[in-house]
Fold this sequence. Notes:
The protein is of the alpha+beta class. The protein has two domains: 28-115, Beta Complex (RNA Polymerase Alpha Subunit, Chain A, domain 2); 124-213, YbbR-like domain (RNA Polymerase Alpha Subunit, Chain A, domain 2, Beta Complex). The protein has four helices and 13 strands. A hairpin with a 7-residue loop joins β10 (169-176) and β11 (184-191). The protein is elongated, with a radius of gyration of 34 Å. It starts with a helix and ends with a strand. 10% of the residues are buried.
Amino acid sequence: MLKKLTKNWALKLLALVFACILWFFVTGEQKLERSYAVPLELKNMPAGMMVVNDMPSMIDVRISGPRTLLMNLDLQDIGIAVNLKDLEPGLSTLKRLEERLNLPGPLKVTRLSPSYIDVKLERVISKKVLVKPQLSGKPAAGHRVAAVHIQPQQVMVEGAESEVSVLDSVATEPLDITDARETRREKLSLSYPGRYSSLKNQLAVEVEIVIEPTPKQ
């Protein structure tokens, strides 16, 4: 029995040394931590709804694990995907983001910032609103603005219900008529600074400013 144990003792000792080295190597790797900026992806937006609050595009994540895995971690292969499929209109708080991070098994998340996100959804609606021209300056002395014609007179706005529902008009870019003596015809861009809504199709309108001599008293 003793003879069997001592047979090839040098090879067995060498194997034991390598095993100890490997153990210390793996143990040392497990203590390594690194920080990453991981993209946040919103998936399966419910039909007819949209997000109406500021959302982070990246999540700061601190990950621990074997050094080799961390050094070879490809950021293009990881991300935090949030499924919005079953959310209703209103504010929802989504927690436990680390569970949505697709990491290789040995790697663990030790910190996230932010650790949760608030998602506010609203219904998307469309509405026709009037176009109002912005005029600056005054015609030449002895002249006046007799009429203003706009084509089209209304445009379609689409977006978040809370923003679109209170809208009644959209302004054009300013048109300077200082010292004008004749009728002006211009194609003017529409000025619409909506945050969660936008012009659906029409981005400019034709405007005619009829300028004529002031009638004598």
